[in-house]
Amino acid sequence: MDRQTISRLAHAHHPIAAPIADESVAGLLARATGHTETGRALDLGCGEGGWLIRALAARPRWQAVGVDLDAAALTRAREVALALGVERRIGLHHLDAQEFKAVEPFDLVLNVGATHAFGGLLPTLAAAREHLAPGGLVMVGEGFWEREPGQAALDGLGAERDDFADLATTTDRVIADGWTPVYGYVSSIQEWDDYEFSWTGSLAAWALDHPDHPDAAAAREAADRHRAEWLHGYRGTLGFVTYLLRRD
Prior knowledge:
Residues 42-137 form the Methyltransferase type domain. Helix content is 45%, strand content 23%. By secondary structure, the protein is of the alpha/beta class. It is globular.
């Protein structure tokens, strides 16, 4: 079973692919879009379009563009956009986010939990800067170390110690790169637990509901492995922060 399919099944009940609760998503989007009645948003790694579709539903005069390599996720995004009546205000591109070229700048550029697409946080911000209108905002979500990671945490994440820093250092790096945090949201342990139990539970439930599917065993194994890596490895060690940033 390929990674994109696993992720899509795992996010069936948690379409925001990050440890952020619905009410927190709504609050972040209100801050990000509330400064103007009309605007344009771009999500570089949109998946099923959860951030953009919610933004459009709340802001009837906004337009949006999403870019992602997962064709099935984009299909799902189109279905949800159609069901909510915002399909005419969103454009979805099956494309590597690094290759996307915009004709016009955007008032809001998002990348939440997908900085790996650009090779890390600062390269992601460099890419976002190329698409950002003067005075616009970037919303970026990134991991950080809540505490010094042990080997179990590193093994569970398939990470190296230097892949992340603590929250203070991460924020300092963003500021040194020429950005000002105008807001930041740190996900709670409750949000992490809900996200991880939803991720592993949705995938395991799919396997139980489709016992004769050729990928059922692989899905169940992936869910069990991920749950163990989280509970016995990085729970309470890896944090997640979502910044709203403006250029200096």
